Every structure is written in structure tokens, then in C-alpha cells.
Amino acid sequence: MSFGGVQHAISVIKQNRNLIKKHRKKCVGLAGDDSKITEYNLPNITEQKILMLRKKLQQEQKLRRTKQVVVLSVVMLILIGTLIYYM
Description:
There is one protein chain. By secondary structure, the protein is an all-alpha fold. Helices cover 74% and strands 0% of the residues. It is flat and about 65 Å long. The protein starts with a helix and ends with a helix.
């Protein structure tokens, strides 16, 4: 390795270090700039509506899970049938 290559590597490391310092000055933690925090005005909701929403979401999840099991079963049957046919 020639000295020119080493010199270039050293200068690149210094440039990267300077860029990181500049970037860290702009950011405050993981969330970024604290002045961009927004507040949300969420509507009030009753316990009954929460329970209804929970039940609805559970039913949707149950239906989705059933569809996944059916599709997986069909695919597995086709795969097993194909393997048995060719063996």
C-alpha cells in the first residue's frame, strides 16, 4: 500500500468525523427536533364503544386467521399431491 492511499484514507476518516459532528448538532435524540412535536385532539370514547371495537377487531382477526389456515391447507394438499404423483 502506497503512502498516497493511506493519506487518502486518513482524510476520508476525518471528513466523515466532521460530518457526524455536524449531523449530531442538528438532531436531538432519536426523535429528532423537539419543536416538531404535535398534539392530537382525540375524540372521547365510552367504555361500551371500546368493547364493541375490541369485539369487532377480534372477529376480523379470527376470520383472517381462518382464511390463512384454509389457504395454507390447500397449498399443502396440492404440494403433497404433486410429490406423491411424481414419486
